[in-house]
Specification:
alpha+beta, 5 strands, elongated
């Protein structure tokens, strides 16, 4: 009865398919838990200690494999981001002064889309006014833009 809203489907499954026995183990990896390993049976059974020990070892192996997969995905994502930044940087090398604004806007759009951000703003500091103002911005279609006229006082 006291089941989180996100687990209602699993609760209904347990009602529809009564479980005679169940063994659930944490997938431990690094300094935390990255998931779980569960075995269920419709019939009642005992889980021998030796089988539980071996299942814990399997859970550890699977947890480390998942952790390695996550790390590899993060490395690949970082590499893609670095390549994009490098490409954007390369564009700035050979542009004329009148192309800077459009190129900045292009860069903001590329980075924002990569990061799945709804908006990105570039602030410029004014020595004369001792404040920052938004000089360039990119906004995802449907998102509200940041106010361009706002000045932020320097701290």
């Amino acid at each position: 009865e006291d089941v989180p809203e996100t687990a209602q489907e699993e609760r209904q499954f347990a009602i529809d398919q009564p479980i005679g026995s169940h063994l659930a183990l944490p997938l431990k990896a690094g300094s935390g838990i990255v998931g779980g390993l569960a075995f269920s049976s419709l019939v009642k059974r005992n889980w021998p200690d030796g089988m539980i020990r071996q299942s814990k070892l399997l859970a550890e192996i699977l947890g480390n494999a998942l952790l390695r997969k996550i790390a590899q995905c993060q490395i690949e994502e970082l590499l893609q981001f670095e390549q994009m930044v490098s490409e954007i940087s390369g564009i700035f090398v050979n542009i004329q002064a009148d192309e800077v604004d459009d190129t900045i806007n292009y860069g903001l759009r590329c980075v924002s889309k990569f990061l799945k951000a709804d908006r990105c703003s570039l602030y410029q500091y004014s020595n004369q006014q001792k404040s920052y103002r938004i000089s360039h911005t990119w906004v995802k279609k449907g998102a509200l833009p940041a106010p361009i006229s706002n000045n932020l006082a320097s701290r």
